Design the sequence.
């Protein structure tokens, strides 16, 4: 098999579609390199003294794990000096991180969830990193949070790394979705899946069922119908999976289909769902749509949502097109 490296892929994409100028290529390669470093830390586990909880909380009021902080630092340090970015934002930082004045500034802005699936770190279950790339607004001065307030449809690139039995990088720049596997001995990313496609139909769903009593009626109805199986209105049996790492759940769905849901519920209406729009839902929605799937908040396309704050939460329904259409229809009906 002829091996195509991430660099070769990016160079050839630029020749083909003109969507990956040198500065964006640098950005993607730097993020990929940072993910390689995170993967190395994750893989060390107790031997690297990276497991367990830090003494801090993030802006979402969640207790931070050591690896949340380590991964955030790795991404910040890797991306600061290259001249390709104007600013960064992260799940683990309350406000945006402008590029320090000692470095040149570029025209892109990077958002990330440095370590997704934190509750799985200490139990050796797959976790990941999610990232989203936006263009800095024309004529932007000192970057502010307002400059980040762009709909997901404006993303120029998005991707995730999954740290599982294999470390993989899944990437879109708006021309399909491709997957690279980390060759751990060589330290290089090798193209292993081209043009990933999510099957439109599925019999597998992913949701945290323990929240069922809090759900809104459309979600309850949808899941009850799935659970009723071949004796219910759907006339067929469905299977369930829930990894509690969005990256790992989405990765499964990209490979064999499925629907992933994290709905809003009746508990706290100021917190519509758990997942964050800017660095979880938007990049995943971009990837899923580029793979032929769909992603909504129950009412509208996630990529059409006009954000109003950096850490805004959003209900998420994504994956196989036909199932996302059913549950979205129940919300609209
Ligand atoms: P994070 O670790 O970045 O805070 O994200 C965790 C998210 C997501 O990855 C996962 O799907 C969900 O939280 C799991 O939620 P439950 O704890 O409700 O299962
Ligand atoms: Mn997350
Ligand atoms: Mn996280």
Sequence:
């Amino acid at each position: 098999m002829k091996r195509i490296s991430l660099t070769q892929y990016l160079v050839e994409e630029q020749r083909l579609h003109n969507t990956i100028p040198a500065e964006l290529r640098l950005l993607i390669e730097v993020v990929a390199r940072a993910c390689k470093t995170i993967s190395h830390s994750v893989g060390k586990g107790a031997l690297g003294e990276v497991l367990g909880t830090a003494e801090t909380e993030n802006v979402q009021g969640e207790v931070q794990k050591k690896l949340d902080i380590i991964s955030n630092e790795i991404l910040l340090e890797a991306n600061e000096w290259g001249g390709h970015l104007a600013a960064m934002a992260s799940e683990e930082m309350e406000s945006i991180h402008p590029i320090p004045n000692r470095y040149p500034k570029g025209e892109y802005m990077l958002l990330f969830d440095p370590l997704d699936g934190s509750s799985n770190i200490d139990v050796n279950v797959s976790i990941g990193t999610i990232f989203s790339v936006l263009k800095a607004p024309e004529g932007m001065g000192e970057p502010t949070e307002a400059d980040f307030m762009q709909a997901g449809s404006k993303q120029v690139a998005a991707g995730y790394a999954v740290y599982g039995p294999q470390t993989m990088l899944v990437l879109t720049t708006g021309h399909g979705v491709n997957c690279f596997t980390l060759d751990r001995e060589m330290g290089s990313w090798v193209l292993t899946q081209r043009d990933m496609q999510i099957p439109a139909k599925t019999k597998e769903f992913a949701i945290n069922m323990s929240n069922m009593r809090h759900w809104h009626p459309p979600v309850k109805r949808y899941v009850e119908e799935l659970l009723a199986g071949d004796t219910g209105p759907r006339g067929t049996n469905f299977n369930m999976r829930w990894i509690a790492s969005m990256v790992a759940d989405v990765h499964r769905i990209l490979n064999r289909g499925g629907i992933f849901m994290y709905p809003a519920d009746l508990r706290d209406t100021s917190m519509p769902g758990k997942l964050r729009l800017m660095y979880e839902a938007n990049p995943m929605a971009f990837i899923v749509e580029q793979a032929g799937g769909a992603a909504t908040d129950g009412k509208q396309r996630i990529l059409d949502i006009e954000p109003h704050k950096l850490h805004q939460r959003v209900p998420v329904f994504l994956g196989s097109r036909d199932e996302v259409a059913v549950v979205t229809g129940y919300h609209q009906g």
The two ends are 51 Å apart (CA to CA). Helices lie at 6-17, 22-44, 66-80, 145-148, 217-227, 246-256, 277-290, 321-332. The pocket of AHG (ligand 1) is lined by residues 62, 91, 113, 116-119, 208, 244-246, 274 (CB under 6 Å). The first strand starts at residue 53 and ends at 57.
